[in-house]
Specification:
The protein has about 300 residues and is mainly β. The chain has a domain at about 1-20 and about 60-215: Single-stranded right-handed beta-helix, Pectin lyase-like (Pectate Lyase C-like, 3 Solenoid). The protein has helices at about 1-10, 50-55; strands spanning about 25-30, 60-65, 70, 75, 80-85, 90-95, 100-105, 110-115, 115-120, 130-135, 140, 145, 155, 165-175, 180, 190-200, 200-205, 210-215, 220, 225-230, 235-240, 240-245, 245-250, 255-260, 260-265, 265-270, 275, 280-285, 285-290, 295. The strands form two sheets. The chain has a 20-stranded parallel sheet that branches. Strands 4-7-10-13-15-17-20-23-26-29 form a ten-stranded parallel sheet. The longest helix is centred in the first third of the chain and has 9 residues, at about 1-10. The chain starts with a helix and ends in a 6-residue tail after the last strand.
Length: about 300
Amino acid sequence: MRRIALLAIATGCFVPLLASAPASAQATRTWVSGVGDDVNPCSRTAPCKTFAGAISKTATGGEINCLDPGGFGGVTLIKAMTLSCGYTMGSILVSGGPGITINAGATHNVSIRGIHLTGINQTASPGTIGIRILAGAAVSIEDSVISNFSQQGILDSRTAGNTKLFIRNSVISHNTGSGIGLGATNGSVTEIENVSSINNLFGMSTTTGNSILIRRSVFSGNSNSGIETDGGAQANVTDTAISNNGIGVQANGTVRLSNSDISFNTTGVSSTGGQTYGNNRISGNTSPGTALVAAVPAQQ
């Protein structure tokens, strides 16, 4: 299956390791600037040039902020960390690898806020994955734009159990593989809210063992499927638009739909595990596809 092949390719990507500065030299808050210099201490008055230059000068659990607009380069996060550029233009433009790789400790939490990630996808060595998650307890991606990568926009391939992923208020578009690829292998839970995953191969695809809650989101223009679950995965979808895809909902696992629109797809639903609470609107598809079965609410 092409989606699985793309996930397999991604696991072979090179992951750079960054040396850590002595703890005494690390600050809880550091800064990057378009006119900074990585020889600086990354302070407010002497900012660094890149995220990679700032990370070794930032303490575990600290935060890197963008002082002014700039392109700050790809980075690997190996500890609990926040990258935050919510109030200015913070960009990562890469070729030849991922934009952000998260390879943090098993108990570490990582937050990405207000970052624009773009893969240079018209070269012999394109950007591969927007945000690649290898390890870490919980990852939060907020107010970000991820586009034009040759594999996935977001790829979660953690192997530890009970991991968490939160994606909110973000746009993921024009990626060759899945916009959101959920390939964690040991019971990961993902929450997607107010997210547009558009013009990818799959809007969201998930492998066995993943549980996903999707609210108030858009999956549109994806050439294969808007939402896809493998057997053993489950997704609850509410207040969501699924339109203009090859297949709107491809439920090889369980997909429970509530108050959502499945419209203008080539096939509305291809399902062995699609369920409805009876308040969805399936219309305007070239073929409606498989009929959804009634979902049975849990008894209180």
